[in-house]
Write a structure and sequence with these properties.
CATH architecture of the largest domain: 3-Layer(bba) Sandwich
CATH superfamily of the largest domain: FAD/NAD(P)-binding domain
Distance between the termini: 72 Å
Number of strands: 24
Structural class: alpha/beta
CATH topology of the largest domain: FAD/NAD(P)-binding domain
Largest sheet: 8 strands, mixed
Shape: globular
Helix content: 25-40%
Bound molecules: flavin-adenine dinucleotide
Number of domains: 3
């Protein structure tokens, strides 16, 4: 069969999730001839099966919990949770019943060209999708994300277990649910379903839930879920999973068994680099994630963005990196086009490049460089667990002269009024006199985090943090106490 002829375009973006869609749209708006390839839904995991529907579920579950708190503070209330409005909202408002027409039109409306299919590198500067081949004049951007990984547990792969997709798409709740994986996603979904009356058990291999965060945060989160009726088993080594057509049985080391109607597996996600044709461009496809430099370059003319890079599986990381890719690609285009007769085109992309430049941090030489020192992350349980930068353990492992300051939310005025569980934990570099990490657990832990992100990001000197004014009686006032407790 004859090889298809390739079509010359400016940029090809493979995978239009959060990161890819942002890059493709902004490059198209800047006047480049951009082809965007997506095999599933434009927008990716976040709007259809991730952040947005899960936060809609959490909003609903928290309203149920708040209504129940009337009995503690304001009389009596009987709450009868109903999943139907939640499922309807996810279908109607978040996902258009998992239809991406609006997102496709958003991209084509910016001047991009959309191709539905699986893209794969076909040698340097070339991408193949089905029987079409595109030759990219200026570059290729990979934003192919990750997919849920199945842990190597005997029998599991043959069972109809849930991933986040089925958990978000569910119309009728099961009576019982086993959640394998006590990370952020597992805990968020476990609490939601428990608040709607599902008997939930979380099974975690590590010795605590939220194992990547501070142990104090894990304790508060675990206690909160237990108060919602969630059973939590940590240090469990799952050995086998069976499904008899009705019930899942998970058998752990020592013969301990867990059973439930449904099994949700949220033990991690994997980038499938082997599917991308990377070996044809001199990039090792056996890496866990696609290694990039601080301008998101994986190879000459090849950029990557989002979860695929392994720098943090968060929408805000994908968006942050997208701003860098846009600026760097436009800079590259401007340089390629700069010549005696190309000034008009150069200034057209130049304007967009400068706008993109202002979007990132670590700006050097016109194009922002990625800097993850102040990477924020929030687990949207109730209470929320927000964190930025290094944990105490990470700071010690790096040989930093660590000081730790903790304050309990319950001993702050607002926390006491609220009867809130939570804490602030600060990690300081005593030699530099700045915070290098912080954790904020509480009813608005993710929002309280913002001030701490500024402190870590801008390396605000500790005396300045101690001498500023914290509004009374806010949750964030507990930061002042934690600063006082640094030692
Ligand atoms: C349940 C859940 C809750 C989450 N909650 C939050 C949250 O609250 N806050 C937060 O910041 N993050 C959250 N995340 C993470 C967030 O969804 C991801 O970080 C984000 O979607 C990453 O964007 P991305 O562009 O890298 O990849 P994705 O969104 O995964 O998009 C990649 C796209 O590439 C496509 N693709 C893959 N291979 C190919 C190919 N060869 N050709 C064409 N297309 C291809 C895929 O179909 C997909 O659409 C959550 C995730 C989950 C699962």
């Amino acid at each position: 069969m004859a090889e298809p002829e390739s079509e010359l375009v400016d940029v090809v973006v493979v995978g239009l999730g959060v990161g890819g869609e942002e890059v493709a749209g902004r490059l198209a708006e800047a006047g480049l001839d951009v082809v965007g390839i997506e095999r599933s839904l434009v927008g990716g995991e976040c709007p259809y099966w991730g952040c947005i529907p899960s936060k809609m579920m959490i909003r609903a579950a928290n309203s149920v919990a708040e209504a129940r708190r009337v009995n503690e503070f304001a009389g009596t209330a009987q709450v009868q949770p109903d999943w139907a409005p939640v499922a309807k909202r996810i279908r109607a408002e978040a996902t258009d019943t998992w239809d991406d027409r609006v997102a496709v039109e958003r991209f084509t409306g910016k001047g991009g060209r959309f191709v539905r299919g699986s893209g794969r590198l076909d040698g340097p500067g070339r991408v193949r999708v089905g029987d079409q081949v595109f030759q990219a004049r200026h570059g290729i951007v990979l934003g192919t994300g990750t997919r849920p990984s199945t842990p190597p547990i005997a029998g599991l792969a043959d069972t109809p277990y849930w991933t986040n997709h089925q958990a978000v798409e569910v119309e009728e709740l099961p009576g019982s649910l086993l959640v394998l994986g006590g990370g952020a996603i597992g805990l968020e979904l476990a609490q939601v379903f428990a608040r709607f009356g599902v008997a939930v058990t979380v099974v975690e291999a590590a010795d605590r839930v939220l194992a990547v965060e501070e142990p104090e945060a894990s304790e508060v989160a675990a206690a909160a879920l237990r108060a919602d009726g969630v059973r939590i088993s940590t240090g469990v080594k799952a050995e086998r999973v069976d499904h008899d057509g009705r019930v899942f049985t998970l058998v752990a080391a020592g013969g301990v068994e867990f059973t439930a109607e449904k099994l949700l597996v949220v033990t991690g996600r994997r980038a499938h680099l082997d599917e991308l044709g990377l070996d044809g461009v001199g990039v090792d496809p056996s890496q866990r994630y696609l290694a990039v430099d601080d301008r998101m370059r994986a190879a000459e003319g090849l950029w990557a963005v989002g979860d695929l890079t392994g720098e943090g599986a968060f929408t805000h990381i994908a968006m942050y990196q997208a701003a860098i890719v846009v600026a760097d690609v436009l800079d590259h285009v401007r340089r390629a086009r700069s010549g005696p007769d190309a000034s008009g085109t150069a200034s057209a992309v130049g304007g967009a490049a400068s706008a993109a430049n202002t979007a990132g941090a670590g700006i050097a030489g016109g194009v922002p460089h990625a800097d993850y020192r102040a990477l924020p992350r929030v687990t949207f349980t109730d209470p929320e667990v927000g964190a930025v930068g290094l944990t105490e353990r990470q700071a010690r492992e790096r040989g930093i002269n660590v000081q730790v300051g903790v304050s309990q939310l319950g001993s702050s005025t607002r926390g006491w009024i609220h009867r809130a569980d939570g804490l602030i934990k600060l990690i300081a570099d005593a030699d530099r006199g700045v915070l290098v990490g912080a954790t904020s657990v509480g009813p608005a832990g993710g929002e309280v985090l913002s001030g701490l992100v500024v402190a870590v990001h801008a390396a605000v000197p500790l005396p300045q943090l101690r001498n500023m004014i914290y509004a009374y009686p806010t949750f964030h006032r507990a930061i002042e106490d934690a600063l006082r407790n640094l030692r």
